[in-house]
């Protein structure tokens, strides 16, 4: 059964996405500038039946938003080399924060907040990490978000908690850090940049 | 004995990379000048036991072996028994190469070495005895139709892999059918299959005809009943040639084949696992013919694919396969 499909730079649409087998592990929809670039795929493209999907290369924002929801529901799908909104680096982790809000973390240490019901641009960016955002986990109170960061050299990391219900989101606590010096460095450099947070 | 060596080398090659690194350092140390009476580290390792010496030798190539032979007579004997298949070293003098590596099974010849063969030099001819892998892509000048026919007697019955890529002096009349056990042939970027494909041996399992721009229209590869891998990127592979491919084909690389038409069908390739048709004219109907065995599909930049394209439903594909096999039985 099909496991890897690359239909980048084609005019394929939702019909093909709907016909993907459940066994598909990797899907590539990477357009390059030009007249044809997967323009037929919309945010309505059904992906939830592709249970085995682990890697999605996609720069179509509409589909990416829909894919994020699918990822959150499963909690284990990896979106690699995906440029979502203003992410400029591959996304490594996605989580549903609540009330339709999503968080996505990339390998450049940036976490973005999304309104999944609207898609498009991220509304808040949590910056200042020095490493790869490998895990995002909403805490049971529905307010806070735990961010797991692994150092780029894989020699250490930290778990930082943010309050996402205040405007702008604020950093609450550092639960643990594997390397004190690095954690201190990231803590002092941490900042929140607001973007149309509402 | 040779087979045992090969098996040992293969089994250790990928498992103990870290050991490789350590022993590679050992090999380096062995080349360092040592104090009087001190035994070089590598010699100690080689003398240790057969397993460690196998590991050491499997991470070296014939260039290293040249130094190894200088260490100790015992090491020299071990080196001589290794079935080297080092294609990174260009052999200038086939006779001297064979003298140094009597058990070697793979060689990349230069123009000078190939000229020796062409002149039917006895030492050069004898040197190729037992060779299973022969690379001639670096001797484009000397590789001719005549050279292929003049390959010394034992070679045609032992040669398993032949690379004649970009050998521009080989013509469309070149024949490979006398190479009775040849399973892999690289004849990319040349004219060998431009005129006819009848010169290819039916034993082929892997064929590379990439960038063969003069492939005859409708050329048939149906004789190659054992073909598993066809690399034809950038060639003139067309829909009729595609239809002639045997059902046992597992990999088809047909990117940038501008002669493939929207009518291309893959339904008869029931064992196909990898298909690359990027930047070709295949369209929605072609996707519908994909066999259920397919694992990897690259259809990047296929501009004829539209928003209504779909992949065949697994159940439908299975039905199609049954129908196909039924036709096969009916035909047989």
Structure described in brief:
The complex is a heterodimer of chains A (about 200) and B (about 325). By secondary structure, chain A is α+β, with helices and mostly antiparallel strands. Helix content of chain A is about 15%, strand content about 35%.
Description:
The complex is a heterodimer of chains A (198) and B (332). Chain A has 198 residues and is an alpha+beta fold. Chain A folds into two domains: 1-82, no CATH class; 85-198, YVTN repeat-like/Quinoprotein amine dehydrogenase (Methylamine Dehydrogenase, Chain H). Helix content of chain A is 15%, strand content 34%. In chain A, the strands form three sheets. Chain A has a five-stranded antiparallel β-sheet with strand order 4-5-6-7-12, with helices on one face. By secondary structure, chain B is an alpha/beta fold. Chain B is 34% helix and 9% strand. Chain B contains 13 helices and ten strands. Chain B has a ten-stranded parallel β-sheet with strand order 1-2-3-4-5-6-7-8-9-10. In chain B, helix 10 links the parallel strand 3 (133-135) and strand 4. In chain B, helix 1 crosses helix 4 and helix 2 (17-31) packs across helix 3 (41-48). Residues 1-23, 29-34 and 315-332 of chain B have low confidence and may be disordered. The chains are: A alpha+beta (198), B alpha/beta (332). Chains A and B meet through strand 1 and helix 1 of A and strand 10 of B. Strand 1 (4-6) of chain A pairs parallel with strand 10 of chain B.
